[in-house]
């Protein structure tokens, strides 16, 4: 059986979170860059593995395919608890971790599906613009709620305890509504993001995935 985990992803997307998690586990893994929006052999392979055509898509050493980043995080935590991707079983922090992990994936992530590609859902340009604007405003409200949950003492989302929630913060602070908005409205999340990117084992990875990101807007 192959020992390597294979991550199909797109730089700067949610696959960055799983790439960072894999890096922290120390498990052997490889990365395949896929432009999920561009027709071609790479996208065809992605669609065979994940009919939704989404990244990240993770191929396990036994060739089983996983989708959904939250599920990948929980699996990797089970296999490499030393990476501290989640609080241990029985921890008083575990319910809080699970709540906000699912909040990010179930509530915030869908806003990117609708606001960032409105042409997929409505044909008229004025309607596309209205949809994008309304969903972006809704995303901002969700991010404010997330930031309020991270306002406790300590350097990380869970206070003194690092977790994969910090990896999500690090990636999302590169996405719309932009780092300037985070600086003004959610400085705690931006501080967490910068601290994650400064970790020696993650610094090069985040630079590679976000090297085309524009400065603060």
TrEMBL record:
Per its UniProt record, what Pfam families does this chain match? Answer: GST_C_3, GST_N_2
Span of domain GST N-terminal: 3-84
Q: Spell out the PROSITE patterns in the cross-references.
A: GST_CTER (PS50405), GST_NTER (PS50404)
- What Gene3D superfamilies does the record point to? 1.20.1050.10, Glutaredoxin
Domain of life of the organism encoding this protein: Bacteria
Query: Residue span of the signal peptide, if any?
Result: none
Residues folding into a coiled coil are none
The record ties this protein, via SUPFAM superfamilies, to: GST C-terminal domain-like, Thioredoxin-like
| Name of the protein described by the UniProt record | Glutathione S-transferase family protein
Lineage from the top down?
A: Bacteria, Pseudomonadati, Pseudomonadota, Gammaproteobacteria, Enterobacterales
